[in-house]
Amino acid sequence: MVSQELLQKAFTSYKAQNFSEAEKFLREILAANPRDAHALHLMGAIGLDVKRYDFAEELVRMALAEEPNNVDFHITLGSTLSQLGKFDEALLTFQEAVDLNPKHHRALVELANLSRDLGVRTRNKNLLEAALNFYTRALAIRADEEIYINIAYLHHLNDRYVDAIAAGEACLKRYPNSYKALLGMAGSHDFIQKYEESLEYCKRALIAEPDRYEIYGNMATTLKNLGRTDEAIAAQKKSLAFVPEKAWLYSNMLLTMVYASSVSPEELAEAASQFGEKITDPLMRDRPFKNSKNTKRKLRIGYVSPDFRGHAVAFFLAPIYYADKENFELFSYSKTEKEDLITEDIKKYFDHWRDIKYMRDDAIADLIEKDKIDILVDLAGHTGHNSLLVFALKPAPVQVSWLGYPATTGMKAMDYRITDKYAEPPGMTEHLNVEKLWRLPDIFCAYRAHPNSPAVIDHPPFEDNGYITFGCFNNFTKITDIVLQTWAKIMDRVPNSRLLMEIVGISNPKIKEEIITRFIKNGLPIDRVTLEPRLITNQYILYNRIDIALDPFPCNGGTTSMDTLWMGVPFVTLAGKHFVSRMGVTILSNAGLSDLIAENIDDYVSFAVELAKDQDKLRKLREGLRERFAASPVMDQKKFARNMENAFRDMWKQWVFAK
Predict the structure, then answer these.
(1) Which tens digit of pLDDT belongs to each residue from 379-410?
(2) Quick one: which of 48, 103, 377, 441 is 20 to 30 A from 37 by CA?
(3) In a domain, 134, yes or no
(4) Are 162 and 21 part of one and the same domain?
(5) What is the CA radius of gyration of the chain?
(6) Is the same domain home to 479 and 375?
(7) 162 inside domain
(8) In this structure, what CATH number is given to the domain that contains residue 421?
(9) Are 352 and 332 in contact (CB under 8 A)?
(10) From CA 498, how far away is CA 276, in angstroms rounded?
(11) Model's pTM, two decimal places?
């Protein structure tokens, strides 16, 4: 009886988080009876709470030796093992708890939580499906907001957005003000391109929880997808106001600013510099590198990317596909979450493949240092799932930004940014970059055409249609109001002409209505505009329906512009004053089409109109364009690989001699 009273006192103190007092009562019990299972268990639970995990494991195992069928003891042991990183043992322990009592709600939830965490960490589909099963069983016993949310999350993770939405709706019936459920619904609707619905859920979530940065972040993504970049930037700034230390929020904002016509190059550069000063520059490691300073030895080059997969980046990896393996040893640091057949192909070109997607930034940096990488190349910049915080730690002597992001990273740890003389003529953009600009001969990248791209049609579409069709298949975020107004002028001067565009989410009636309203507001003759959804089946095929492509501005097309020329379609571009607004300049200059580069909007309009009206010129320009483009520096991958390797060698020499 005395021990029961002491145990109750210990439990009361434990619940009040007065662990020292609880431990005093428990020691008194154990002094009288060292095998008291409940005292041992509660002492172990205290050890778990104060992070004395080895101590906790020992005591809970002793308790289980006395009462092997106690479900609560199994749950505490499973939690302890999980904290110790003994995940397989923890799973088995939670499973034993469920086997002892299949309707024990907490046991099911704990087993589901661990299965979910391990499944996410390792992308193990079996564990993810097991987690979904355990959550569903727990939900049948007792409704719980977090369980609904986890079920929706797991469906979303497996691209089952309809099921995720159904789970979210079920949650909101019971918990109508659940901001997590509302945010999950916004995310799932965003993924199925129901952007207007996504915005409505974000607004409801803000009413429920007005101070949640995640809601503003989700809203910004949706607004960007709708082409409402200024509103997206405003939402991202609100998000950052709550959590200014979140690097990925800064990256999202910087990427949106690239697209916005209202943001000057100077403003973008200033925002990137603030990212560096506030987030990354304080992280730089200050310790000597142990790399050999021999300037002629084989160099170890590391490439870091989340996009070694079916992604645009895969078509520009010439220095990897055509590497000089006698002089360069290649290391991949892959953060690719969903690997595919292209991933498997890319792996063949690396000497070493490091999977870093589940590693901490400091552990990745340590691995890079251990590999003695001489030059570390970032392929993502401020795009999604980047590794800029790894670069911030400065794990390699020379660090280079290339390909993925068309502006300065803002980081002092990044030594160089790859460019060329057309995209950034000397003296034009140095003030917009924290990194030193390294201009490659010809062009800053080399294009590899998709092996399944269709043949080019043997005549211009206007010969069949009787009218000129202009087209643009760029990300709709790049299509600013000034661009639409400019295109309206072109169509006004080319009677009966048409405009064909490919837009994500255009099948959604609400989005289509909003876009059409915007087009009309900016003067486009909507009866002569065709809007196609962005579908994988449309890739390349739509080019055979247009005569002339129109490059957006200030954010030009990149991969899309190269696809355009590969498909035998010329495009008109407007030359700006910074890299992202001059990608068209370097592509057309290297393709031998510099007469399609306009220096101002009036010329842009005139060039497009004149080409549309001079059908003989247009016909000759299109004839053999794919072949001429294939023979240009833009597609000379071997030459580009040598140019990049020469740059690496010279960068290395500069680092060595600077020391």
Answers:
(1) 999 999 999 999 999 999 999 999 999 999 99
(2) 103
(3) yes
(4) yes
(5) 30
(6) no
(7) yes
(8) 3.40.50.11380
(9) yes
(10) 45
(11) 0.89
